[in-house]
Write a structure and sequence with these properties.
The longest helix is centred in the middle third of the chain and has 25 residues. The radius of gyration is 22 Å and the shape is globular. By secondary structure, the chain is mainly α. The chain has 21 helices and no strands. The chain has one domain. Helix content is 76%, strand content 0%.
Length: 454
């Protein structure tokens, strides 16, 4: 999310570490409660305290710490909540949730999985599962929805084919994170592009050059571990039900406005349900749309609260403090470059900032929302393009999310496969390859810049 630094005051903002205290309170509540419940043996411990609830005390503290009058502080909070980037993000969340719910209810997910399985040779089961998960996650824009759809099917395949269940779970997680990272309708993509002020298509082009080598490496690894075996029986291919996914994927990659893409996808998925699913009527369609809205409630509310909290911290100098701190680190890292601002150091700083935030929040979208403003300032001050900073934010948030044993993705797959989440994420090879590919890209591009200016 970006904020107009001149909209409320022309005076320079003084950096203040104290302004970051509300964020520390939010993280302490979220992580502290999750850690305690984990110790108590509670399933999905880090998701027992809803993040929006944990954010409320932080918002209250930020208002109390403000040196402005109470009414001015509340106005600043509401300005952050109502920022155009935040509102646009929330509207896209609603449309994405509605499409995912309708497509699932009308059989689109099952039809797409069935299509993929019908095309798989026995020796390509694991790479095929990766491709199926990646395709669905790219089309749906959600790793959790992909895991929920593909996970049970992948488990059945692993049991029938005699494949390693932990590796199969890692394949599903890898494909889901690939799509989550690249999808134009993913909440991480929305947050990253909106916060950095770049077009989704530009971020996609920057991102895919880094993601494809990692995906190829993961596929080769999965191919090596795929033993010839009998593929489970599949049913007749239902092309009509697959059409909404194919349509939104093509339109999204073509760069059509995301609101139009999601609206068309929602209409197509509903139309397919009305035509091909017995007892599916307009009332069911409306209920599924509303259920999809409900599925996005948490991230919707959290985005608004974090938007307001971010504006309060900005007004009080918290983001200025972080920017100054990161710039000092970048300056120290760049001493060997003759005092020139280091783009490489800035890119590494953006990657490190969002990674650390993600470790603390166990939510890649939240990490991007929290780190977005600081990342944008670092990028602008050190000549990093918006699409580059957006790509780094999305990549490293997805990398961390895919290897966190207390992340939602690892917990869900562990539950489906009956495995420890730590075992699942240890097989998330795509995420490890993606991190390596991104770091190589940072250093290689830096060397190319140096050679061009020599």
């Amino acid at each position: 999310m970006s904020y107009d630094h001149t909209q409320s005051s022309s005076a320079p903002i003084k950096p203040s570490a104290l302004a970051l205290l509300p964020l520390a309170v939010f993280l302490a509540l979220f992580i502290g409660v999750g850690s305690y419940l984990t110790w108590q043996g509670i399933d999905f411990a880090f998701y027992q305290l809803p993040a929006p609830v944990a954010a409320l005390p932080a918002v209250l503290l930020a208002i109390l710490l403000s040196k402005d009058k109470l009414n001015q502080s509340i106005e600043s909070f509401m300005r952050g909540v109502g920022h155009s980037d935040i509102i646009a993000m929330c509207m896209i969340y609603l449309l994405a949730g509605a499409f995912a719910a309708v497509a699932k209810a009308t059989g689109g997910v099952d039809a797409t999985v069935n299509l993929g399985l019908s095309l798989l040779p026995a020796s390509l089961i694991l790479p095929g599962i990766f491709v199926i998960a990646a395709f669905i996650a790219t089309a749906m824009g959600t790793s959790m929805g992909t895991i929920a759809a593909v996970g049970p099917v992948a488990l059945g395949i692993a049991e029938v084919a005699g494949l390693d269940k932990a590796l199969t779970a890692g394949v599903v997680l890898s494909g889901a994170m690939f799509g989550d990272n690249l999808s134009i309708i993913s909440d991480t993509t929305i947050a990253a592009t909106r916060s950095q002020g770049c077009a989704m298509r530009d971020k996609f082009r920057e991102n895919i050059a880094i993601a494809i080598p990692a995906a190829i490496a993961a596929i080769l690894l999965f191919l090596f571990h795929s033993a010839p075996s009998e593929v489970p029986t599949v049913t007749r291919i239902e092309w009509l039900k697959v059409m909404p996914y194919l349509t939104i994927l093509v339109l999204a990659v073509a760069g059509l406005n995301v609101f139009v893409v999601l609206s068309l996808g929602l209409i197509l998925a509903g139309g397919v349900g009305l035509l091909s699913v017995s007892d599916y009527g307009l009332a069911n369609w409306g209920q599924d749309i509303y259920a999809g809205f409900g599925n996005m409630q948490e991230i919707f509310l959290l985005s608004m609260l974090i938007g307001g909290l971010g504006e309060l911290m900005r007004r009080q100098g918290g983001l200025a403090f972080l920017t100054r701190l990161m710039n000092k680190l970048i300056g120290a890292f760049s001493k060997n470059n003759g005092g020139e601002p280091s783009q490489r150091a800035s890119e590494l700083g953006i990657a490190g900032l969002v990674s650390l935030t993600n470790v603390c929040t166990a939510n890649n979208t939240v990490a991007i929302i929290v780190a977005g403003s600081v990342a944008r300032e670092l990028a602008e001050q050190n000549s990093v393009t918006p699409r580059r900073s957006a790509s780094l934010l999305d990549i490293f948030s997805c990398v961390i999310q895919g290897i966190l044993p207390y992340g939602a993705q690892g917990l869900l797959l562990g539950s489906v496969f009956g495995l420890s989440p730590l075992t699942v994420v240890s097989h998330s090879y795509y995420c490890f390859f993606l991190a390596a590919s991104a770091l190589i890209a940072v250093f290689v591009k830096h060397q190319q810049r140096m050679a061009a200016t020599a």
